[in-house]
Queue: 2 jobs
Job 1
Amino acid sequence: MRLSALLALAAIALPSSAAEAAQDPYSYAEPDKVRVRHADLDLALDFPARTIAGTVTLELDWREARADMPAVGTLSLDTRDLTIERVEALDDAGHAQALRYTLAAPDAELGSRLGIAAPARPARVRIAYRTAPTASGLQWLDRQQTADKQAPFLFSQSQSIHARSWIPLQDTPAVRFSYAARVRATQGITVLMSALRQPAQGEVQGFSQPQPIPSYLMAIAAGALAEQATSKRTAVWAEPSQVAAAAREFSDIEAMMRTTEQLYGPYRWGRYDMLVLPPSFPFGGMENPEMTFLTPTVIAGDKSLVSVVAHELAHSWSGNLVTSATWRDIWLNEGFTTYVENRIVEAVYGRTQADEEFVVAAGELRHKMQSLSENQQRLAPVPREVGADDALTDVAYVKGAWFLRFLEARFGRVVFDAYLRDYFDHYAFQSITTEQMLDYLRANLVDRHPGKVDWDQVEQWVYAPGLPESATLPAVPAFTAIDTARAAFLHGTLGAAALPGGDWNTHEWLYFLDHLPEAPTLAQVQALDAAWSLSRSSNAEIGMRWLPRAIRAGDSSAWPAARAYMLRIGRMKLTLPVYRAFASTPAGLAYAETAYAAHQAEYHPLTRQAIEKVLRKAHAQPEATP
Ligand code: BES
Ligand code: ZN
């Protein structure tokens, strides 16, 4: 089918300018009327009550009144499970005047619209509020749930639309604002935010984020934390017993930063610090500015999983500097970042490792693509069909990065690197749509170097489902040898112990495991485990690929290891495949449910939701192979 025909159809539903993007379907904000420019937070952490309480003062930019707009100002904000105690307008002298407001009944996905009547269009509005103990964007841990058991712990995860569960704000990536915060916490608790730390004043710790950031980058963490420097401008934060191992694992961070700066221009955020969270952190990493949050599962002891750090660092350019204006455009964050991540890995750890990592990711993408709808296979999907987080499949990450690799190959590194650097400069501190990215691409790369790429090809990458034929992969000789060895093993012509696994690095193991059948035979699983102790691997990425296969093969001797794994690790990408494998048989489902019932309180709210969905689905369709 002609792509232009497809696009003509899609264009009706797609936002084509930043103004239209302002209509974010996942937010009640009305940024074409009014925008938050700065937020000033005064908060107190109450660990026993599991609440954050205090005020946020929003500095507002009211837009020129348009003919179709009522003259009276209304400020429409996003909230979820917040208790609103007071709303006031502040004048220049700081005098407060109470404002009327209504908190709408909650929508399950979006939360509650907070509508504030602001007839005089005040420059500042102050909201006094408190969070619910069940806030979807926060996890409160008892001290027993931490590594050192010294103090309780709190952390936020705002992406995609959970900032609204701990701050009333315009929770859309189309709006950017700077912030300052003062946070009161009891002695012995260190508070960190996605901001630069200011000197503490007694029990109050101060923060300043001078750059305009989108709301999903609002972040807070608090606990008994220690800091270890990894260079002048970088450090690792973790519970005291973890900090030395973390600093060793991430010791290449300064080299990573220099590489990225050489490629794409100066790091614009001052410091780059990393916080290692408790194991219940639901993601691998989160690019909170100045304070990347990381799962402890990346501390493998041998730096084999540090590409996660390269990824979060890369977001300092792709994502935090140039931000996707809507969740439908999220591939502008994740695809560009996955590309940059691989360039960092190549520069710091060599071409072979970079190629291996990309080929592993591409294999996963091809596999997962089979179970995605056509719309989900598009880099820029037609919005509204999916939830805010559902645009975040491997498509955004790996197909996005693959598209940039395609451009790099066609235009050559020298031209493409310079182009990308200019792109980051051009859109720095802006939130943009796919179409704005394409405008810049066309004018500054494709039209300037005619004959390299047809515009139709670009549109196919961005708007068509599946992968274009121009998607090629680098040859990885080690993987070819592994394919041969795997085939011989599966044929029964090579014993498990005779596999050359002793020579394989982690990525080579991942490649070997990824292309085993989903449910190997019991004999195959037992032979591999006997030879290579895979069930006991301490590398979480190996466990995620091995344990589900052992379960599906019917090897109940792997159950206790799988149970320990899924209770130890709250990172959704790792723990959910184990739950899914258990859920594929009635006995496994019962076993997983018992384990979950006893430990659900330890999981993050998002992980709980996701696990419960897997378990519910298994009950609904017991025959289905997930
Ligand atoms: N920004 C994402 C994490 C995220 C995405 C949180 C969507 C909530 C919604 C982060 O940069 C990321 O991509 N993390 C990956 C690691 C990466 C190496 C692929 C993860 O958590 O697995
Ligand atoms: Zn990312």
Job 2
Amino acid sequence: MKVSVHGCGYLGAVHAAAMARLGHDVVGIDVDAARVAALAEGRAPFFEPGLTALLAGTGGPGALRFSTDAADAAAAEVHFLCVGTPQSAGSGVADLQQLEAALAALRPHLRPGSVVVGKSTVPVGTAARLAAGLPDGVGLAWNPEFLREGHAVADTLHPDRLVYGVPDDGGEALVARLDAVYARLLADEVPRLVTDLATAELAKVAANAFLATKISFANAVAEVCEAAGGDAVALVGTMALDRRIGGDYLGVGLGFGGGCLPKDIRAFAARARELGVGDAVSFLDEVDAINDRCRDRAVELARAACGGSLADRRVAVLGAAFKPDSDDVRSSPALALARAVAAEGADVVVTDPQALALAQAAAPELGYAADVREAAAGADVVVLATEWDEYRALDPHALARVVRAPHLVDARNAVDRARWRAAGWDVRALGVAAVRAAPAQSSSPTA
Ligand code: UGA
């Protein structure tokens, strides 16, 4: 099929390349000429494992082109909208300007019989509104994307599910068209769920809100463990074995960041308030607050490791990306932590295997180093803020030789604490250290 993909960021670039891999003839459209030029040369404009190979068309029979001109999408039978919907400045509401602009640019080139398929994360009600503005004979479906950065290629080619939101009127034709697009995935028995437009829009934000809630639940329990003297990592391990709960997204640590979870829970809450049901999701404000406190608690650990003050201390922060296997620093917990430590007068040096350039652009006030050894040289405390595999695998003996004092704050519970302690390190970790003064023991026998 002839397919166009509008927006070639973390979502669209992978989607375009994946559509070509599935055998379609694809054009990716983006307003960013530098990004289009890179993609046209087969270079991934950001770090995403497997994307370069996918762009190179390994094994893919489909054609793949990129352009800044929406007119180049005119021949497509299916037009995917993959642009970003960031948080509006000053409010939690989703900013739909990129979506409106992409559709406005595409609109004159839409031919009767073609379909527009939204993949961007949008406030419920957006799809019905956009559908009403399309030319006669052009249908609209909402097909939310659930890919994770760092796993985007596998998540696109082997998704857990496909969700098609379609209007009552003309729904069958839209389903048939999407089935043709995803024929190879359906042949692999990927579950396919057909819903109305509103349900499909909500399916995405509800999933992200649930994941954020799970993470904050683990981090809330971690706060209690810190006060009570428990070990949240061990505790979560007991929960994870309960098949009804599962262990995913129960990682105790610095919490969630990135371009999706933080803004999606705020946009979901904002939309619910607009709909008059704000109380139903007001707990998401608490999920957000727990997440923010993770950073404060990590700073507290670093301060304690330095004897009560961070002023004039050298702090090495390992990790700038919002998570491993990504160079994305949007709402990065690691960068927020580094900034907070610097605000207390510390000399902060950040390193990251992939995100240094974007981190430097986002937080030019911080110090940067190309690798762990350089970042940790002379450090009073090392903070592990993003759990890259290479940080998990660090040799504590070797690192102890370059730091000024062997203090580690493991803000992601990523290392083997016993191994580091055996190598002479003072290790503090979120959810496991007695960060706060222990309360007086209860004399009650019942706990
Ligand atoms: C998230 C969702 O997982 C995807 O399904 C969704 O498609 C995507 O948002 C989106 O809306 O586009 P992503 O933002 O790539 O994907 O990142 P995740 O892997 O979900 O991680 C989000 C954050 O949570 C990261 O900062 C990560 O470090 C943190 N996290 C994750 C924890 O703090 N603890 C955990 O146990 C798991």
